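User: Here's a protein and a ligand (flavin-adenine dinucleotide). What would the complex look like?
Assistant: Let me lay out the input and then the predicted complex.
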Amino acid sequence: MAAKLTKFSFATLARKALEGHKSWPQQWPQAEPKAQYDVVIVGAGGHGLGAAHYLAKEHGITNVAVIEKGWLGGGNTGRNTTIIRSNYLYDESARLYDHALDLWEGLSQDLDYNVMFSQRGVMMLAHSVHDVQSFKRHIHANRLNGVMNEWLTPQEAKAFCPPLDISSTARYPVMGAALQRRGGVARHDAVAWGYARSAAARGVDIIQNCPVLAIRRDTAGGVTGVETAKGFIAAKKVAVSAAGYTSVVMDTAGVRLPLESFPLQALVSEPVKPVFPCVVMSNTVHAYISQSDKGELVIGSGTDQYVSYSQRGGLHLIEHTLAAICEIFPLFSRMRMLRKWGGVVDVTPDRSPILGKTPVSGLYVNCGWGTGGFKATPGAAHVFAHTIARDEPHPINAPYTLDRFRTGRLIDEAAAAAVAH
Ligand SMILES: Cc1cc2nc3c(=O)[nH]c(=O)nc-3n(C[C@H](O)[C@H](O)[C@H](O)COP(=O)(O)OP(=O)(O)OC[C@H]3O[C@@H](n4cnc5c(N)ncnc54)[C@H](O)[C@@H]3O)c2cc1C
């Protein structure tokens, strides 16, 4: 039975405050699996929950289960540094990530849940002549695609982000920056929770602590359902959104994917008063930084050099990241770090996702987001739901086929950006 959606109106908030905030109902029920669904989605991250929301809301498909091996949002959705931007190089990427950005701008209203989307601007630092040329190329390509992106001189970059060291003696000299003012950050847990409660209110079952062990196919090769820790669940369609574990899940259906799984780390500092007004990325020295609403500096590091499912990364990587942060922002050199964690990211050879149908009838996949899929969450989930509902890709995700690794029609953001948070 569908959960009742609490409306977060001013009147409700005021009434609940007067009641001491003791009577808030559960936001989504803990569902047990039914025997059969129209669609089973594997993985309750933002992408899986978002697809369930759009399936129910835009396609009227509500006999849906989202099956999660742990707790919802406990994967990369709850582990990332929340950077949102759309200034990717290629036309296909511009369409996909800008579609996501359009949806981010209305997401809190759509879900009636504050995802704390903050368009504080994402600034990418250029430290070498190569960076300058590459970023300017991006800016021109973005503008041709109607994607907002602009070039800043070092002085303009400093004015936008005062803690930045632009002195000529800096170890990593700042030669300018690309700024996307429309970019920013959002609260990652809230994205998962907002999609979950909206989907549940429309009749979707969210089943946690239930690993999917195998995808089952009939003798004709089509999907019949999934084997789980809670038994077999029949499904007309199965959609996999399992991030770093996608290749393992898809392998059980006999589909091999060109994915490698790497640990990727992030860390936060002790909380301080507001000091950092935007998001800054430095691809060259591999450091990303913003400040959370709690006051912590949120810092992103790089992937390990070797494949692993360990969900923690090597210490030397965060040491390198912090050394770079201290060089670029000497102001932070005496701050203490509070905690660090890792996630397992799924990386394709061209660093673009695989998003759509598979060679198996009734089986769909949304994966390969690597280090940068949080920003795509609403856009990817939206076009994935379209693909599942109609059994054909949306024009935006049509190029993101598995087949491109056979035909060579790559969307090579790896060569374009080196990294892709
Ligand atoms: C440290 C870090 C920093 C990052 N920073 C950024 C950033 O700044 N900006 C950005 O855009 N992106 C960033 N990313 C990437 C981003 O987090 C991911 O691309 C995105 O969250 C993927 O969302 P998802 O819903 O596909 O995956 P997830 O949230 O990982 O969801 C997949 C779910 O599938 C579940 N699952 C796996 N196997 C099974 C199974 N067998 N049965 C059932 N369930 C299963 C998992 O438990 C998980 O909950 C970062 C990632 C990390 C780790």
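Summary: The CA atoms of residues 265 and 341 lie 6 Å apart.
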